Every structure is written in C-alpha cells, then in structure tokens.
C-alpha cells in the first residue's frame, strides 16, 4: 500500500494500492476522520473501484459530524451501516409478509401435494381431489383472503356434482389438512377457516355409508370372466386373481413373481393397504392362470402384471368396465353402491366366503381388514344360508311330520 494522502476535502484521506488497478490507475482506498466524545475516530469508507469518491466520503463525514452535534440519527459510519442493514432487513421482512399474504392457495396445494407424495399413501387421490374439485374454486384465491364464503362455495360446488358423500367429505377434509400444513409452515397465521364450515354441517365429518352391496353370483362371475377373456386375457387374469383371492387391485399391481409360492400354494401380499403383510391362497383357477403366465419365463423380481410398456399398472383397464356395461350388469341401476366395478370382484370373494359359512374372523384375515367391523358387513349373508340349510333339514328329516301337519290343516278346514 502507498502512503496516506490528504484530499481537498477536510477529514478525508486516501491511499493508493501498489498493484490493484482501477481505470488504468492505482485503486484508491478512502477513510474519514472526525472527533466524537473528545476522541479521534477513523473509519473506512471504501475503494474507488467500489464507487467511493472523495466527494462521497466527505458527504458521509459531514452527515456524521452534523448528527454528533445535534445528537440525532447515526453518529458513525458503523452505525450508519447497521441502520441501513436493519432497514433492508425490515423491508425484506415486509416484502416477505406481503408476498406470503398474497400467496395463492395453489402454491400451498402444490407444496402440500409434494409433501404428500412421500408421506401419504393416498397422495394420488389427493392429487385428483385437488385437480378436479378444489382447484376450480380456490386455486387463485390468496390464502389470506379465503373465508367461510369460499369454503361454502367449495362445499356447494362439490355437492352439486352429485359425488358420493364420501368424496365430498374427503374433499373438505383435504382442504382442512392443507390449511393445517399452511399454519405449520408459517404460510397462514389464523385459525383454520374450514373448521367453522365443518362444525356447522357436521354430517360431512361423519363417515358416510358408502359400502358396496353388490356382489356377483357364480353364473355372473363365469359370464364376466368368459367375456373378459375374449377381449383381453390380461384383464381377465387380473379379474380372476381378485375374484378368487380377494386381493385389492393395488395389491395385484404390486405383486412380483418372488411373492408367488406355487409349491406351497400361497401368495405373499407385502404391500397391503393395512400396512401389514398377509397371505392369500392359490386355488385351482388361480394356479392354472399363474402357470400359463409363468410360461413366459419372467424373472423373480418382475411384476406379475405390467402395462404394454413393461411398467407398473396404475389402474384397471377400461376394458373391464366396458365389458361389465356390455353385459348389462349395471343396466337401470342408479345407486353406485349397487353397481359392478373393479372392487366388486374382491367384495364378491368375501361374500362367497360368508355364504359358505366361513367364520368372520377368518374372512377378516383373508381380506386383510384392519378391524373386525369392516368384515361384519358380510355377516348378514350367512343367516339366509343357515335358514336354507334348516329348511332342507326339515324337508329331509320331517316328511312324515309335514304330512301329518297338512292332514291336521285339512281336517280343520284350512285350504292349502
């Protein structure tokens, strides 16, 4: 560094750098000097290459000296910089608050769905509910502006679509969950607004009776499988596996050949909805189907069922529903609980078990239900068959008694 040099401005000095250049000349380093509380103070202003000039340094010094006299505002270059930094931070905080307040609900939803993708098994359903039901109403509304009016509109629009009660409930609950996350993420600092909506209309918090009542008869099941085989062997095999094992479609799509134990006749269901692994059993129809598919020579780590591009299947092909409709299984049926869909196959498996008198606890294990209450829905199918068995017993064992009773009725003058 060169020697200190006075400038034409009082209290401002500069120093030339020996090697550092600016505009073809040695760069200059400026400092200011002034008195404060009886002491000499020297502070660095900066380099010429950073935009500092003697005039600027003198102006800053003048402000400091003036402030010292009147005891106001910054009284050193350090204080000036600290005040400026505080102002910048305050302004940034104001901008952040303003941006946060004006953040559209869409931004919250996108962040929530990204979180749900790695944290919730229902993320695909959440994405669908957001896209088709919540987004059209709330996407562009700032989070801070969403009120009971907007949420009542969301509820009204969802109900207007004549969706299943369970779907309406899930849409509203998903919106509540998004607001809960917004509060946790600092995007919203008020009480969750949808609570008041759900509190007023508590029926949306109740789990609606959305249980499927329809199951296939043996003849209907055979007819469906034959029709599917003519359209798509692939879809036929998926339907057959669900029908004779009770596996959920998602569980079937996750199955790998390593999960199939043909020697012992069992299927290891590792990715069950309940979160617990369970066992399904290979019956003769399933055994033959697997034997045929295995003839293709798949590897143990390969999926049993793949789409045309060799990837994991995400949903049952439309071929299934088109075939059901062509067979007329849903003709004239308006209640969705009575319609035949992909889930009907699993429901039929459980219904057939109940009709055969299989204990409810056994059905629960085979179906992979979390609680016995989920299985008790099939219990009503057993009494009718018990009644039928009792009637057959009476026919076989009590013929003479029946004839005697008929004779008594005739003697009493009671017509048949």
Features:
elongated; 17 helices; hpI Integrase, Chain A; alpha+beta; 4-stranded antiparallel beta sheet; 4 domains
* CATH class categorisation of the largest domain: Mainly Alpha
Largest sheet descriptor: 4 strands, antiparallel
CATH architecture descriptor name of the largest domain = Orthogonal Bundle
Within the largest sheet, what's the order of strands? 1-2-3-4
User: Helicity level, as a percent range?
Assistant: 40-55%
Distance between the termini: 128 Å
Supply the helix-strand structural class: alpha+beta
Shape: elongated
| CATH topology descriptor of the largest domain | hpI Integrase, Chain A
Count the helices. How many?
A: 17
Low-confidence stretches: none
Number of domains: 4
The overall strand count is 7
> CATH homologous superfamily of the largest domain, by name?
Intergrase catalytic core
Topology pattern, helix = H, strand = E: EEEEHHHHHHHHHHEEEHHHHHHH
Q: Which strand-content bin applies to the residues?
A: 5-15%
Could you please describe the fold and organization of this structure?
The chain is of the alpha+beta class and 416 residues long. The protein folds into 4 domains: 4-98, no CATH class; 105-204, DNA polymerase, domain 1 (Orthogonal Bundle); 218-378, hpI Integrase, Chain A, CATH 1.10.443.10; 384-416, no CATH class. It has helices at residues 54-70, 77-101, 105-119, 123-138, 148-160, 165-184, 194-200, 218-231, 233-245, 249-254, 284-294, 318-326, 342-355, 360-367, 372-375, 381-397, 399-411, and strands at 4-6, 12-22, 25-36, 39-47, 260-261, 266-269, 278-281. The strands form 2 sheets. It has a 4-stranded antiparallel beta sheet with strand order 1-2-3-4. Strands 5-6-7 form a 3-stranded antiparallel beta sheet, with no helix packed on it. A hairpin with a 2-residue loop joins strand 3 (25-36) and strand 4 (39-47).
């Amino acid at each position: 560094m060169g020697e200190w040099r006075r400038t034409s401005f009082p209290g401002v000095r500069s120093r030339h750098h020996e090697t550092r250049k600016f505009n073809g000349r040695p760069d200059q380093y400026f400092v200011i000097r002034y008195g404060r509380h009886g002491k000499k103070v020297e502070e660095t202003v900066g380099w010429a290459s950073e935009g500092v000039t003697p005039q600027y340094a003198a102006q800053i010094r003048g402000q400091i000296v003036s402030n010292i006299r009147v005891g106001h505002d910054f009284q050193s270059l350090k204080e000036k910089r600290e005040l400026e930094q505080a102002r910048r931070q305050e302004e940034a905080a104001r901008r952040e608050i303003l941006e946060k307040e004006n953040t559209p609900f869409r931004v919250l939803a996108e962040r929530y769905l990204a979180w749900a993708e790695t944290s919730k098994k229902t993320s695909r359903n959440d994405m669908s509910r957001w896209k088709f039901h919540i987004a059209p109403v709330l996407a562009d509304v700032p989070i801070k502006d969403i009120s009971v009016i907007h949420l009542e509109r969301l509820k009204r629009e969802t109900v207007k679509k004549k969706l299943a009660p369970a779907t309406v409930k899930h849409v509203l609950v998903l919106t509540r969950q998004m607001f809960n996350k917004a509060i946790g993420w600092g995007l919203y600092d008020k009480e969750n607004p949808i609570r008041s909506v759900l509190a007023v209309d508590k029926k949306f918090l109740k789990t609606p009776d959305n249980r499927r009542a329809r199951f296939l008869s043996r003849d209907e099941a055979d007819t469906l499988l034959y029709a599917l085989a003519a359209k798509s062997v692939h879809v036929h095999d998926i339907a057959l596996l669900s029908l004779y094992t009770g596996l959920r479609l998602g569980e079937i799509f996750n199955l790998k050949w390593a999960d199939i134990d043909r020697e012992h006749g069992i299927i290891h269901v590792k990715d069950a909805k309940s979160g617990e692994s369970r066992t399904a059993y290979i019956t003769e129809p399933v055994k033959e189907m697997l034997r045929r598919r295995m003839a293709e020579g798949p590897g143990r780590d390969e999926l049993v069922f793949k789409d045309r591009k060799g990837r994991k299947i995400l949903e049952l092909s439309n071929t299934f529903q088109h075939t059901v409709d062509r067979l007329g299984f849903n003709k004239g049926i308006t209640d969705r609980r009575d319609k035949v869909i992909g889930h009907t196959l699993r429901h039929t498996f459980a219904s057939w078990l109940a009709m055969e008198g299989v204990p409810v606890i056994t059905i629960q294990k085979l179906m992979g239900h979390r609680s016995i209450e989920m299985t008790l829905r099939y219990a009503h199918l057993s009494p009718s068959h018990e009644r039928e068995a009792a009637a057959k017993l009476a026919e076989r064992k009590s013929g003479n008694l029946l004839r005697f009773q008929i004779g008594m009725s005739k003697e009493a003058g009671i017509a048949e």
